[in-house]
Design goal:
By secondary structure, the chain is α+β, with helices and mostly antiparallel strands. The chain contains three helices and 18 strands.
Length: 309
């Protein structure tokens, strides 16, 4: 009897016993190149491909951040600064404190400050030359060299649009294109996807890819969902009707919420408890004492009864 009760208790507790929970404290500086940044928001997207959850944080006045993530080995932590994807870090149960600086390119839209334009020249020209022209009449290029053509090269800082049909391969690193509209090819892990950029303005640009339209406001970004793969598209800045766009692979989107695993654990627990109750009932039925029934013949028998026929 005691063993049966003990077995039931063990079977009841077993589904709820897991490994001791762990956590990682991610902390460090938020940098643009080597410059410390302040005032941004931090988001950590934690997933193992099935379970997914998010953790929010912020950046202190000293440019430091701290985010506590409770997970397990096999999870990856994707860090975003003001919604802009920065990097993916593997969760490590053997560590508690993880020092990890979040570094943005110094030319990134969150960091980049356009250089001041050249002041007008003495005669009112746009570049400060003696005659207000980029051509110094010596057939020199802007870098001081003569290419023999009699014309200066393109002024430093002028954007050249990315050619139509160009590949944007984001498999290993982020890529940038400059466009006022056109057709391009996005490449991820040797898979190619045609996409279009259109309706470019100083406020936003539109992207059509994988039968879906996305609107990207300037100085912002959106996640492009391409067959479960996430590509972060950012509108960094605009100049003369052109948009400078950045594309970066942000990993695989989770396919289910954490509630699914909870339901599975509950179902398994119910099954195990049911099996335990079944064996307990069976055990009790085997140990049940047996009582002899008093029949009619036994009730008639006694000291005063006569001999049985």
């Amino acid at each position: 009897m005691k063993r049966g009760i003990l077995l039931l208790v063990v079977l009841f507790i077993l589904p709820f016993v897991n490994a001791v929970p762990t956590f990682n404290l991610f902390n460090g500086d938020v940098l643009c190149g080597s410059s410390v940044q302040t005032g941004y928001s931090i988001t950590a997207n934690v997933t193992n491909g099935t379970d997914v959850f998010g953790v929010n944080g912020g950046v202190s006045g000293a440019g430091e951040y701290a985010v506590v993530v409770g997970a397990a080995n096999g999870y990856n932590v994707s860090f975003y600064v003001n919604g802009v994807f920065v990097e993916i870090v593997e969760y490590n149960e053997s560590l508690i404190e993880v020092n990890n600086d979040l570094v943005l390119e110094s030319s990134h839209g969150l960091c980049y400050v356009a250089p001041p334009t050249d002041p007008p020249g003495p005669t009112g020209g746009p570049t400060g030359g003696p005659s207000g022209s980029n051509d110094d009449d010596d057939d020199d290029d802007d870098d001081g060299t003569d290419d023999g053509t009699g014309d200066d090269d393109v002024v430093v800082g002028t954007w050249e649009p990315t050619m139509d049909g160009s590949e944007v391969n984001v498999t290993e690193e982020s890529r940038e294109i400059i466009s006022n509209g056109g057709e391009y090819v996005l490449v991820i892990d040797e898979s190619s996807y045609d996409f279009s950029i259109y309706a470019v303005s100083s406020e936003s640009a539109k992207i059509w890819i994988n039968d879906a339209e996305y609107v990207i406001p300037v100085d912002s970004n959106v996640e492009l969902d391409i067959n479960g793969r996430i590509v972060l598209a950012s509108y960094l800045e605009t100049q003369d009707g052109l948009a400078r766009l950045s594309f970066q692979d942000a990993g695989v989107r989770a396919t289910a919420s954490s509630g699914v695993m909870t339901i599975i654990y509950i179902i398994i627990g119910i099954i195990i408890i049911g099996v335990g109750i079944f064996f307990l009932i069976r055990k009790l039925s085997v140990d049940k004492p047996k009582f002899n029934k008093i029949g009619k013949e036994d009730s008639d028998s006694g000291l005063l009864s006569g001999p049985k026929n």
